[in-house]
Amino acid sequence: MLISVKNLTKNYKTESGKVTVGALKDVSFEIEKRKVLGIIGESGSGKSTLVRILSRLENFDSGSVEINGKDIYCFGKKEFSRTVQMIFQNPYASFNPKLTVGYSLSEALEKNCKNKKELIMNKLALVGIDEDILDKYPHQFSGGQRQRLAIARALLKEPDILIADEPFASLDAVSQSIITDIFIRIKKDKKTNIVFITHDISSAFEISDKILILKNGNIVKYGTIDDIKNDRTNDYVNELIEADYLLEQ
C-alpha cells in the first residue's frame, strides 16, 4: 500500500483559544501504488488540511499516516523530499523572481548530478515547454506556464507521490486542459502517483482512479469513479456533481 491513513484527526483552536474546530475527524483511507486520488469538497471541508498533512507541512492530533509502510515522521528530510513533492495552488509564488527558471530547476537535482540539462529537458518536454526558456525569469511566464514549470521541477526529484493543491485554480480553461493532460501523461508513465485537490469534478473524474469526498472534516464518500457516479443516495455528492454539470452548460 502506498499511503495508509487511519483515524486521522486535526483540530484548530478558535481566536478565543477555547474551542477546537475539527478540520479532520477520524479520517481513514488507503491508496494503492500507481493510482491517482482526487480529493473533492467545498471550502472548509478539510481537503487542504489533509494534503498539507500528507506533505508534512502540518501536524495532526491523532491517528497515523504511513507511506510505503513507514510512518510519515520517520523519513529524513532528504528522503521525504525524494518521496513526496508538492505543487502549490499559487503558480506566481512557486519560483524565486530573482533566479532564472533554469537555475531554479537545476536546484531540484543533486549537486553532483552529471546530466542535469538532459534531465531538465526531458521534464520540460513532458510538460510541453520549449527548452529555450532556461535563461528567462518567472515574470516572463503566464500562470499556466509557471504551474507547468512547477510540475517539471517537482518531477525532477522522481518522487513516489506528487501532491497538488488546487492545481487548476486561477488558471484559464486552456491552461486547465493542458495541466489535466500533463497529469494523464504522468499517470500513464506509472512512475509517480498523484494526489490532488480540485473543485473541478469533471477533471477529477478524467484523471482519478479513486475519489475522496470530504465535508466538514468527514469522509462523505470514497471509491472509484463508478462508485461515485452510480451511487446517487448521498445528497451532498449529488449536489457536487449537479453543480459541476450546471457550470459546464
Explain this structure to me?
The protein is an alpha/beta fold. It has one domain (3-91, 160-248): Rossmann fold (3-Layer(aba) Sandwich). 36% of the residues lie in helices and 25% in strands. The protein has helices spanning 47-54, 77-83, 101-106, 116-126, 143-155, 173-189, 201-207, 225-230, 235-248, and strands at 3-13, 20-31, 36-40, 62-67, 70-71, 84-87, 161-165, 193-197, 210-215, 218-224. Strands 6-7-8-3-9-10 form a six-stranded mixed β-sheet, with helices on both faces. Strands 2-1-4-5 form a four-stranded antiparallel β-sheet, with helices on one face. Helix 4 (116-126) crosses helix 5 and helix 5 (143-155) packs parallel to helix 6. The longest helix is centred in the C-terminal third of the chain and has 17 residues, at 173-189. The protein is globular, with a radius of gyration of 18 Å. It starts with a strand and ends with a helix.
SS element count, helices: 9
Strand order of the largest sheet: 6-7-8-3-9-10
How much is the radius of gyration in Å? 18 Å
Number of strands: 10
Question: What would you call the shape?
Answer: globular
Q: What's the CATH H-level superfamily name?
A: P-loop containing nucleotide triphosphate hydrolases
Order of helices and strands: EEEHEEHEHHHEHEHEEHH
**Could you name the CATH class?**
Alpha Beta
Q: Strand percentage, roughly?
A: 25-35%
The appropriate CATH architecture is: 3-Layer(aba) Sandwich
